[in-house]
Amino acid sequence: MASNKTVSKEVHASKKTPISSLRVLAESMLKLDELQDSWKIILDNQRAFLLCGNDDPEFVWNFTAGEYDLPEVKEEFINNKSLLTLNDKSIPINYESDRSDGIRGILALSQLVSDQYEIRYCIDSWHSSDLAYMVLRHSDWVELEETYSSEEISYRFLPLPLTYEEFAREAFTEKNSRSYPE
User: pTM of the entire structure?
Assistant: First the structure.
């Protein structure tokens, strides 16, 4: 007979939304015409996106993980260093104590979960103080790439590079600064 703790955990897990529904949201963004802003989809489905201003990456990830079938991560401070941990894998966060530390946390989180998932930046969040990121399984991104052109995907989503400098160079370009008609 299972313990109460095991039964409770199984019941809790069954209430989570399947991660496949995240792919459906990404696809809804890709189906939009280039003259349509995907920001409304992000705002209407905030629990589905990693929304990061200057929040710590553990909170940002676990906020979404609490709704979707994603594993939890932990942030630990060891010897004055911040580490993100998932199961037995840990990644340091290279904080610089500035307003871009939220992005640095997401980049570390992306490396941490890279065995199973890929996090991409939602370009239409560029105008907001809370940047949005979409996490999908690798297989979900592959399916989207088989359905949509690389141009369509790169119009809405940017794969995350390893460093903040690369991210800033690729994400915050004039090309990605869009004004949509009302």
Answer: 0.89
What is the reported pLDDT for 13? 44
Is residue 10 helix, strand or coil? helix
What tokens appear for 139 in the block? 């297989």
Q: Given the structure tokens 């015409």, which residue do they identify?
A: 33
Question: The tokens of 105 are what?
Answer: 């946390």
Structure tokens at 108: 């570390």
Report the C-alpha gap between 77 and 100 in whole angstroms.
Answer: 19
Q: Which residues of 2-13 are buried (b: 16+ CB within 10 A; e: fewer)?
A: eeeeeeeeeeee
| Residue 150: partners with Cβ closer than 8 Å, 6 or more residues away | none
Distance CA 77, CA 94 (A): 12
Q: What is the pLDDT of residues 32-63, one digit of tens each?
A: 999 999 999 999 999 999 998 878 999 999 99
Tokens 């939602």 belong to which residue?
A: 122
